[in-house]
């Protein structure tokens, strides 16, 4: 997942996700075979938004155990303010520019309000989420 920042406008690129993890978050996706994490982030942002990004900064990682599969799930977070191209829409959801303050007031993807801290706070780089028996987040541990 990548926070693309337009520093001149004071805005970040948000996506109103409709296919999975519905709600507003940043663009991102999955690794394809043979890709590095950074290559995957660059490709996903391009596919979902039409923007070409570079100079990514690693912001952190979120991880949890998927109760359905028993596998550990990992999301790697990056940010950049270096981008080019024309913003386009995609089947993943509506893409739009928004200030961080406005973003916080939108209907965010579940848990994204907590995860924003990884993008905005240089003192945290890892978030471990633990769930109770009903699947509700029980503990958020920052590292």
Secondary structure topology:
Elements: E1 2-6, E2 11-17, E3 23-25, H1 37-49, E4 52-54, E5 57-65, E6 72-80, E7 82-84, E8 93-98, H2 100-104, H3 112-120, E9 126-131, E10 137-142
Parallel strand pairs: 1-6, 5-9
Antiparallel strand pairs: 1-2, 2-3, 2-8, 4-7, 5-6, 9-10
Description of the structure:
- It is a single chain.
- It contains 3 helices and 10 strands.
- It is α+β, with helices and mostly antiparallel strands and 143 residues long.
- It has a single domain (2-142), classed as Nucleoside Triphosphate Pyrophosphohydrolase, CATH 3.90.79.
- The protein is globular and about 45 Å long.
- The mean pLDDT is 94.
Characterize this entry briefly.
With 143 residues, the chain is of the alpha+beta class.
Supply the CATH architecture: Alpha-Beta Complex
Q: Let me know the largest β-sheet.
A: 8 strands, mixed
Which strand-content bin applies to the residues?
35-45%
Number of strands: 10
**Distance between the ends:** 19 Å
CATH superfamily: Nucleoside Triphosphate Pyrophosphohydrolase
Spans of at least 5 consecutive residues with low confidence: none
- What is the CATH C level class, in words? Alpha Beta
Cα-atom radius of gyration: 15 Å
The tally of domains stands at 1
């Amino acid at each position: 997942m990548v926070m693309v920042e337009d520093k001149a406008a004071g805005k970040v690129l948000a996506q109103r996700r409709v296919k999975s993890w519905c709600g507003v978050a940043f663009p991102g996706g999955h690794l394809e075979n043979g890709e590095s994490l950074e290559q995957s982030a660059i490709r996903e942002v391009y596919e979902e938004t039409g923007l070409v990004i570079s100079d990514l900064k690693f912001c952190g990682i979120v991880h949890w155990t998927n109760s359905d599969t028993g596998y550990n799930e990992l999301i790697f977070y990056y940010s950049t303010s270096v981008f080019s191209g024309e913003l386009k829409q995609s089947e993943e959801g509506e893409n739009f520019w928004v200030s961080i303050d406005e973003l916080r007031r939108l209907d965010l993807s579940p848990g994204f309000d907590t995860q924003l801290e990884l993008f905005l706070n240089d003192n945290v780089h890892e978030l471990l989420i633990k769930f109770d028996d009903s699947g509700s987040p029980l503990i958020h541990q920052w590292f």
